[in-house]
Amino acid sequence: MHALRLHNLIRGCIGFLFTGLVIATTSAQAAATSEQAQRQSVEQGITLVQNYLKSKTAEKITASGTVAARRLLARANDLLEQALAHLAQGNLDAAQAGLDQSIQSFSAAAVANAKPAKSNPENSVRIRETRAEIDAYLESFRAALAEKGPAMAGLLEQQHLQDLLAQAEQAQATGDFRTAESELNQAKQMVVTALIKIRNNETVVYSVEFQTPADEFRYERERFLDYVALGQKVLNNGTLEQSRKKMFDQLHDKGNQFSREAMMLAGEGDYESAIERMEDAVRKMVQGLKLLGVQLSM
After folding, report:
1. Among the CATH numbers 3.30.200, 1.20.1270, 1.10.8, 1.20.1250, which is that of 38-114?
2. For 123-178, how does the pLDDT look when each residue is reduced to its tens digit (9 = 90+)?
3. Cα–Cα distance list, 139 to 142, 144, 211 (Å)
């Protein structure tokens, strides 16, 4: 009788260990498949950015572009190189972020290379209003930083921000109002993005209000990235049927495509279309997360 009990106990332990091994193996396979899909998306993005940086627009900027346009194009190339390095190291999230910034810099270079706007009162008014918005956003960011602590300071690249503001002031002084506005818009985007990120850590959000279409676009962009991160966490923490996993990957890839298109539209200043496209990207991620059992609404 004792031998029979021992035999049954051993069988039970072996069965338990085997079940645990199967679950762990399935989870690891799901994570590997997700990583493969993300890598494929990043590689496609790299090809897209490489095509942009070899385009006739890029050649024109290199040959006879404005100082600001050439600087932005050089930054786009640098960001692409950084993205390639992150990809080689397996840091896919950082690679994707670098690609998005590279596309944004290239778009800004194309805008900065356009014929400088002639001086008129509207230029000065827009520049003054944009600078006032930046100062207001900076004040809000600093207030949030004082509440949350210095660990959040890295959300805003202070030196890059000051460089953009100085370059905008110099461009305005020389009558290059288009470049001045481009530099200020980039600076405002930096501050707004940092403000959104630091506020995302607040426990309660009562309402979301936007002063400009650009602010709304950045909010939708951050929402898309949050949902992408959430989806990755869900995939890494459990098992999922391969059919549902495949459907999620397809929705995720489509969302990334819409997001890249939205970034290009935003870089061209068409924020109305960019917001609509980014909302399409968010919608795809919401659909994908519902497949994973996460119930969200637009």
Report:
1. 1.20.1270
2. 788 888 888 888 888 888 888 888 888 777 788 888 888 888 988 888 887 788 88
3. 5, 9, 15
